[in-house]
Amino acid sequence: MRGQSGISLRTVAGILALVLISAASYAQTAQRAKPAVAHGASAASERDWWKNAVIYEIYPRSFQDSNGDGIGDLNGITERLDYLQQLGVDAIWLTPINPSPQVDFGYDVSDYRAIDPQYGTLADFDRLVAEANKRHIRVILDMVMNHTSDKHAWFVASRSSLTNPYRDWYVWRDGKGETATDKGAPPNNWQSTFGHAAWQWDETTRQYYYHNFYVQQPDLNWNNPKVHEAFKDILRFWLDRGVAGFRFDAISTLYEDPSLADEAEIKDKDGKPILNVFGDVRLDSSKTRNLPGVHTVMQEMRAAMDTFNPNAWPGTRVLIGETFARNAAELNQLYGSADKPEFHLPMDLQVLPAEMQTGSARLDVAQLRKNLTDAETGIGSNIPLLVFDNHDRPRLDMRYGDGVHDVDIQKALATVLLMSRGAALFYYGDEIGMKTTPPTRKEDVKDPVGLVGWPENKGRDGERTPMQWEGTAKAGFTSGDPWLPVPPSVSTINVKTEASDPNSLLGWYKALIQLKKTNPVLAQGANVMLDTDNTKVLSWMRQNKGAPVVLVSVNVTAEPQTVSLKLPCAGVCEWKLKTLAKSPGAVAPLTPERIELGPYGVFIGEAE
Ligand code: NOJ
Questions:
Q1: Are residues 417 and 310 part of one domain?
Q2: Measured from the CA of 460, which atom of ligand 1 is nearest?
Q3: Whose CA is nearest to atom 2 of ligand 1?
Q4: Which DSSP category does 431 fall into?
């Protein structure tokens, strides 16, 4: 046992002041009236809005700057709400906007109940929510629960002494072979997701703390019930302000195995350890990922959210998970059960995984079909949430583009995303085909992942460049110096140009969203794969009792293809096809038995 040092009076006073200030601001917020918005939609569809939702991810730093400092902000988002309404989205998810030293651009939170001054104020936030609600758009926040910033008052207190009441809010351990004069080795071989050891020595109290992400992101100790209570309060704080739900960040890493045993090294077929992009030996993550406690926490958070009345605007408050399931069975568990529900919408990041980018056959029809079938059949009656793109992955152009048909490929992928059953989430700029534009020099890198991983891993700056509103040097994003450079592609890829072109990618997204929202079969019908031996064209139908089926065919090759779809029918059936949407220039087919598709061409039609 270590010597216990006394707790400083200043620390106690500081914490007390913090608690009082937070309690006072919470009380004020709770009194503020929630926006009462009448939208004319049925009560049930308002409550169940999330089941067919189109959710738009905004990286606030990069969306719209309103004050010329080169960094996007909340008032900027408010200015662009009309655009989002015209696009047809149901909800916007904002990546973290809380005060933060911005080491991980907001994913290092130093105060969960305020807005970072770079992004605005709580009053700006309230205005954003009210203006979004007027346009029938809900606001979803990111909730970072695995870790805080090392500048958060909890951690500042925790690291101040071994006996501080907040000591047990984080994961502190002695070093291996530590003595009074020697810090010893880290407690085990666990690694940070962002490279190298996950343990950081802290001289003040002479222990190591655990950080699954950066050194500046110490992991919270979820074995401490006070951490649970603190987060339930934080959820209520924002729900009282009118938010429609949360995207829970990094949920799989909440718990660590108490044995602190080393993780096993992953070896190649010759028994040699495999290295990751940071040059570290790859570990099997068995002691730090998806430990059972995660389910209990989700049940608890869901129960806290379910106390909010789903029949009042903004409807059901949704719990979305940043979840990395390896297969549909694992994903299914994240929904919980009827009596112990967990996520409404754990993200399915597997249908179009980041790593499906081998050789020239980047889009493999059989694999896509299998992934979609698993997503449809492997989760019972739960609602899928397909996510193809986000602020952590290279954009679609880099993963799936061929440099020639990029727009058509992105139209094809948008079709898969938006014409499948369930909720769909896409990332700002996907709708115009923004290109991944990584930095070319290490000195320009902003994301520390790129600094640690350079040159193999250039980090995530490439997918976080300013939104391209118009074809000018600053893209209409800012009047100042943008925090990341505007990509050269801005001259052709921008909202203004695409809005006036009926054949643009933007036009295609709008048309698909409109279809998803207005066609009841697309809103609710099951996905059934068709023509399942075809290795070039992905076809499926959406089916709901008593309504005409909707057929979707997507050519996943650069050559023209013709498909002949046999629809299930009793006796002799003659199908008539009505086109709902098709690639520009394509001939409208008259029958499912002959659908002609150009390179990466798409057909969507109703069969009766
Ligand atoms: C996942 C977030 O999407 C990513 O951007 C962040 O760096 C990590 N979680 C750590 O919070």
A1: yes
A2: 5
A3: 249
A4: G
